[in-house]
Structure formats: structure tokens, C-alpha cells
Design a protein that fits this description.
The chain contains 20 helices and 2 strands. It has one domain (about 10-480). Helix 9 runs antiparallel to helix 11 (about 245-270) and helix 16 (about 375-385) packs across helix 19 (about 450-470). By secondary structure, it is an all-alpha fold. Helices cover about 75% and strands about 0% of the residues.
Length: about 475
């Protein structure tokens, strides 16, 4: 069977947001060659406009439902909703980067180019039912993340974190390729819809081999979402990467990977749902329990948010294990709420950081509540939100995730999730106690004087409260995005 290599306007229409981002990335590549050092900020502005135009394209085409490039790419509400999450995250990360790059004296166009190309790969990952395309997207975005993690070249921890991320990521990719190869060997296709139809009528032997292939593929996805036991890179990378990139990596790749995982499980692995839900039940419990337990002993704010990210991956896996429409929609809503919670918390980490992105220890927040009341109040909102305290969006997200588990009669999973959420309250409240109840910091804390980052903190806090109090329309959009 021959595959036509002639693509139509419809094919290109389906990837308009990706084409816009690619065009702006190449524009930065060319313009950066001619810009004097004092005008390097224009690279960031150009990247910002690229994200804005891509966001507008996604919003205009939100209700589109089309396939392209011989059904390798799909544009639907789910991919567009994930794109919105990723583009908002990129927009904020770029704003966080303006003053940060100046301070660190690394205001280079390559930073924004790699970010935009990585963003394109993430959008492709969220927009396909083809395992090979998923693999290419995962590898492309991973290369970008490795580079951005080690962008602080004079900071040993940054280079070390990038190397650790690269080595473990390469190892995870090996399993992903092996799983894809098994699926192709079994069913002669890497299209999830074909795999689903073939698996429905397959013999027991084929189904058991498919379970093995699923496990291999899940290693690759588990690495990207930071699920236990594929999580070990997360705290080191978040702590060592430039803070704007730590914020970006904590949300955008997760949104792409979780949607790709949802497509893989709900569509391709649908016929063996009872098998993979049992596996992910255990993984979800171990992930949220490990993340919350180890976070209890963290002294650095960025490392704490790293272990927190692991725990929240466990919460989102609860929605996937529920394997119902409410669970899948709750995962998408939680990812959306996570944008404001995590970006806000990392923005505060950037504000208390010093040259070479150091000084993010929680102890440095002593007396912060009285010296910088608005920023501290926003941080309080973020910590309450991550802990799942009403009326924040974090409470709403966890409520619907655990409700989905109860709806599928997974009572113990829901109970374990609630207990873990209670455990997490201790280390989140520790940050609040440090800000308000532990006296003055012995060394004078000078807040990083970045107006854009301060604006991000305040706006994110407002969004956390607003969406938490009025979640209905946002939840409806998230639930409506799931159509597979």
C-alpha cells in the first residue's frame, strides 16, 4: 500500500499554530544574528508575539475536528485545550525570562528558539494517534528540555541536572521504542485506532504480549509525567534549571504527555482496560505517596515543588485509573488549574533567588509576609491551592479527580488520595508558617526587582481564587474537550 506524499491545504490548516511558532522561531534565529547585545530583549518580545498569534489561532479553530497528513495528526478539542494550557505556560515563562536572562547575562536568542521548537513538539505530541509521531515528538521536546535545563552553563548544578535528565531520558526512550516495536510486530500498525480494532478480536496470547508492550510504552510516558518509579530526575532538574524553565517544564510537557497517555490508554488500550487500570492503580498510589512523603524533608523551595509535582502526577493518574468521562475531564481541568498554581509558586521562587539562580531555600522566606505582604499573600494562595484547600482551584480539581474514582467504585484509591492530600498540607503550610511566624531572616532578603514577575504572581493568585470560586464554565470546557 502506497502512501501519498502530496499534502493539501487542509493538512497545513490543521497545524497552523505549530507553523506560526516555527516561523517565529526561525525569525528569532535570523534576527538574533544582527541584534546588538543591548537589544537582545527583542528576541523575547518576538517569541511572545509568536505565542500570542498561535494562541489566537487555537482559539479561532477550537471547535475544529480534522485529521491531516494521512491521519497522523488530529486537531480536536482535546488537542486544542492542551495547546491552550501549553501556550499560556510558555507566555508566562517568557515573561519570567526577560529580567532573569539579563541578570544571569545569558540573554541569548537560542533560549527562545529552543523554547518555541520544544513547544511545537509538545503540541504535536498532544495531536496524534500515531505512536511513531508520538515518539518523534517526545524526543524533540526532550532535546529542547535538556538544553534549557543546562542553560546556566556557569552553574555546575545546572549542567549536572541536564546530564542526568539526558541519561535517564535516553533510557526511558529505549523502552518506548521497544513497546512501539512490539505493537507494530503484533498488529502491523502504529495507529492507535487500528491497534484498538485489532486488539478487540485478538487471542489471549496477543493480549498478554500487548500488556507487555503497554508496560514498555508507559515507561516512556511515566518518565515525562514524573510518575514513580520514573521520577528521580524531577527534583534535581527543577532545582538546577533556570527558574522560568523549571516553571515551564512543570506544566507544559506534562499537559502534552498526559493527553498523549490518555489517547494511548483510552483508545489504543481500550480492549485491555481492566489490565492497565490495575497497573496504574498501584503506580498512582506509589507516585502520590512518594512525592508527598519525601517533600516533607525538603529545605529548598524549587526541590519542594519538584516533589510536589511528582505527587500531583499521582493525583492526575487517579482520574485516568477511573477510566470514565469525568476522570478524563478532571485530568484536563487539573492540568489547567496547575498552570496558575505552579507558575505562581515558581515565580515567587524567582523573586527570592539571587545571581546564578541561588538562594531559593525556604528559610529565606522568614519575615517575608511582613516585608512583602502582597507577594506573600499570593504565595499563601498558591500553597493552599496546591494543598487542595477551598476556595482555591486546587480543591475543585482534587474534588473532581477523587469523585471520578468514587464513581468507578475505586473507594480505596479515593481514600488514599485524600490522605495524601492531608499529608501534603504539612509541607505547604510549613512555607506559610515560615513566611509569617518564624521571625526575621538573619540575612537581608532583597527581592528580585522584576515588575513582570511580580505581575505574574499577582495575576496567578487572582486566577487561582477566581477559577476556584467560579469553576463551572472552565470545568465544562475541560469535560467537553474529551471526545475519544
Amino acid at each position: 500500500m502506497s502512501i501519498s506524499m502530496v499534502y493539501s491545504l487542509k493538512d497545513l490548516t490543521a497545524i497552523i499554530p505549530e507553523l506560526i511558532l516555527t516561523g517565529f522561531a526561525f525569525a528569532i534565529l535570523l534576527i538574533d544574528l544582527w541584534l546588538p547585545k543591548r537589544l537582545k530583549t527583542l528576541n523575547g518580545l518576538l517569541a511572545l508575539f509568536g505565542v500570542i498569534f498561535a494562541f489566537a489561532a487555537v482559539v479561532v479553530m477550537y471547535n475544529a475536528n480534522m485529521t491531516a497528513f494521512n491521519n497522523m495528526i488530529v486537531m480536536d478539542k482535546a488537542s486544542n485545550f492542551a495547546s491552550i494550557i501549553m501556550l499560556i505556560t510558555a507566555f508566562v515563562a517568557i515573561i519570567m525570562s526577560f529580567d532573569f536572562l539579563k541578570r544571569e547575562e545569558i540573554n541569548l536568542g537560542e533560549y527562545y528558539e529552543v523554547l518555541l521548537f520544544s513547544l511545537v513538539a509538545m503540541q504535536i505530541l498532544a495531536s496524534t494517534y500515531n505512536l511513531i509521531v508520538m515518539f518523534i515528538a517526545v524526543e524533540t521536546l526532550s532535546i529542547g528540555m535538556y538544553i534549557l535545563t543546562g542553560f546556566l552553563r556557569d552553574k555546575d548544578e545546572s549542567v549536572e541536572g541536564a546530564m542526568k535528565y539526558f541519561i535517564l531520558g535516553s533510557f526511558a526512550s529505549t523502552f518506548l521504542v521497544l513497546g512501539i516495536g512490539l505493537f507494530y510486530g503484533l498488529f502491523g500498525s502504529v495507529d492507535l485506532n487500528v491497534i484498538k480494532s485489532s486488539l478487540s478480536g485478538a487471542s489471549s496470547f496477543y493480549k498478554w504480549i500487548s500488556i507487555l508492550a503497554f508496560l514498555f510504552v508507559f515507561v516512556g510516558f511515566g518518565f515525562k509525567i514524573a510518575a514513580f518509579p520514573f521520577h528521580s530526575w524531577t527534583p534535581d532538574v527543577y532545582a538546577s534549571a533556570p527558574t522560568p524553565m523549571s516553571a515551564f517544564m512543570s506544566v507544559a510537557p506534562k499537559a502534552a504527555a498526559f493527553l498523549a497517555l490518555l489517547r494511548f490508554l483510552a483508545v489504543g488500550m481500550g480492549p485491555i482496560e481492566p489490565n492497565w487500570t490495575k497497573v496504574l492503580w498501584v503506580v498512582a498510589v506509589l507516585t502520590m505517596t512518594f512525592g508527598n512523603t519525601v517533600a516533607l524533608w525538603q529545605k529548598d523551595l524549587k526541590r519542594l515543588l519538584g516533589y510536589s509535582s511528582i505527587a500531583h502526577a499521582g493525583y492526575m493518574l487517579v482520574g485516568i485509573v477511573a477510566a470514565n468521562e469525568l476522570g478524563y475531564g478532571a485530568v484536563m481541568f487539573y492540568l489547567f488549574s496547575y498552570v496558575f498554581l505552579n507558575l505562581g509558586a515558581f515565580s515567587v521562587a524567582e523573586l527570592i533567588s539571587k545571581k546564578e539562580d541561588r538562594g531559593t531555600e525556604i528559610e529565606n522566606l522568614k519575615g517575608f509576609g511582613y516585608k512583602h505582604p502582597l507577594i506573600a499573600a499570593s504565595m499563601l494562595v498558591f500553597m493552599f491551592g496546591l494543598a487542595g484547600v477551598p476556595p482555591t482551584v486546587g480543591f475543585v480539581g482534587k474534588y473532581y479527580l477523587f469523585s471520578a474514582a468514587v464513581k468507578s467504585h475505586l473507594y480505596w484509591l479515593a481514600i488514599i488520595g485524600v490522605v495524601n492530600s492531608a499529608i501534603s498540607a504539612y509541607f505547604y503550610l510549613n512555607v506559610i508558617v515560615t513566611m509569617y511566624m518564624k521571625g526575621e531572616n538573619e540575612s537581608k532578603l532583597e527581592l528580585f526587582n522584576s515588575v513582570p514577575v511580580k505581575a505574574v504572581v499577582l495575576l496567578a493568585a487572582i486566577c487561582v481564587l477566581y477559577i476556584g470560586i467560579f469553576p463551572s464554565s472552565f470545568l465544562d470546557i475541560a469535560l467537553g474537550s474529551i471526545g475519544f
